[in-house]
Each structure stands twice: as structure tokens, then as C-alpha cells.
Amino acid sequence: MTAHTLDSHRNVNAALTEYRSARASMTSHIDYMSGYAGGRKFTVFERLLISGTTHDKDESRRFYLFVSRLIPAEQYLSARSVARAAQKHLRHRLRRRSVAWT
Fold first, then answer.
1. Considering only CA atoms, which of 50, 36, 49 is closest in space to residue 79?
2. Residues 6+ away with beta carbon under 8 Å from 60
3. What is the distance of C-alpha 73 from the center of its chain?
4. Which residues have a Cβ under 8 Å from the Cβ of 92 and sit 6 or more positions away?
5. Is 0.70 topped by the overall pTM?
6. What are the residues whose beta carbons fall under 8 Å from the beta carbon of 86, sequence distance 6 or more?
7. How far apart are CA 33 and CA 96, in angstroms?
8. Is 90 helix (H, G, I), strand (E, B) or coil?
9. For the purposes of burial, counting CB atoms within 10 Å of the CB of 95, is it exposed (0-12), middle (13-18) or buried (19 or more)?
10. Which of 17, 25, 33, 40 has its CA 20 to 30 A from that of 77?
11. Residue 77 has what DSSP assignment?
């Protein structure tokens, strides 16, 4: 029973250390998301990433993982992610344009 309770000073310190570690790993995500709460406009890259979610299931899954704090901001907002989202977005735009011309 003592393994999961905070009935000793040692358990409290261990829990606080674990909390600090988890919080530290999410600091960049928290800082990034708080910008949206303040009314900051999306950047071109952010709009591109979000646009990719509307055209591709894999991008939607990655966005879900990001907003759920399951992956860090650095991973979601990486150059590779932006390039992949741009590719999906451009493919969609080109398909729309080719349909409109027929």
C-alpha cells in the first residue's frame, strides 16, 4: 500500500521530482500554446500545418498528438513536418485545380 501513497516524506519528494521532470519536458509546448491563448496570429508555417490536417489522416493524427501534449512542439513544428504538410497541401491544391479545369 505504501508504494502509491504519499504517506512519507520520501514519497512526496519522489512525486515532486517526477512532476518537475514531466513539467520541464512540456515547458516549450506550454509556452507555445499560451501564445494562442493571448490571441497571437498563426504563422504561415502553422497555417500550413493545420491545412495539412484537413487533407491527410496522418497529418490529422500528428496534430492530435501535438495538441494532446503527446509529442513535443519541437517534433510537431520541425522542418520535416512543415515540408510534409506543404507537400500534402500542394497536392490537394493541384488536384482541386485540375478538377476545376475539366
1. 49
2. 53, 54
3. 5
4. 55
5. no
6. 48, 52
7. 32
8. helix
9. exposed
10. 17
11. T
Residues in the chain: 102
pLDDT class of 100 with cuts at 50, 70, 90: low
The 10s digit of each residue's pLDDT in 42-65 is: 888 888 888 888 888 888 999 899
Residue 49 vs residues 5, 14, 60, 101: alpha-carbon distances, Å: 42, 38, 9, 27
33-49 burial: b if 16+ Cβ within 10 Å, else e = eeeeeeeeeeeeebebb
Q: In one letter, which amino acid is 53?
A: T
The answer for residues whose C-beta is within 8 angstroms of residue 91's C-beta and 6 or more apart is: 55
Alpha helices in 1-102 (DSSP H): 9-25, 27-37, 44-55, 57-67, 73-76, 79-101
**Angle in degrees, CA 69, 34, 22, rounded to 5:** 40
